Amino acid sequence: MGELILCSRMRAAAPFYIEAASVNVYSVEELCYYIEHNLYLLGRNFMSEALCAWVGQELGMKETAAKLRGILAADGSLTEFAAAILSSSGYCVGGAPGEVINRLREIEYKSESECAKLRADRYLENGMYAAAVREYRRLVKKWEEDPLLTGNLWHNMGKIGRASCRERV
Fold first, then answer.
1. 94 — alpha (psi -120 to 50), left (phi > 0) or beta?
2. What is the pLDDT of residues 82-94, one digit of tens each?
3. Cβ-contact 105, 113 below 8 angstroms
4. Measured between alpha carbons, how far is 13 from 29 in angstroms, rounded to an integer?
């Protein structure tokens, strides 16, 4: 079954392009959905002046944009930044924002390599095979000294091959 997201706030005339996932978002609810479902793709580059400007200008959420800019200026955490976006919308209800923030906190303190592995796994789950292979190959070169981890990476790349063959049939 699909999900229905009721967008109760203004829809932007111009979308915000999220390069990590090659996706456009048109509302704060879509941005929150992206954050919730793509935690492993979020990085410090997500925290940008461009996003703050889009929130303020395109969505008309000037207070939220100012709050986001304050977090940027104070060199705040990705968790703070995402929490400000999530709390500004009615998207996450019933305790969900807390769950998302807790998962993001866990990720934020992992090493870059651990996050890269989780990101590659997420690419694989979402059918973004080329991005997953690029990430896995980069990790294999970096972690050659760990045979168990290298084996897991090669295993996941093999899963990509199987999945892409099934799609061609």
1. left
2. 999 988 876 654 4
3. no
4. 15
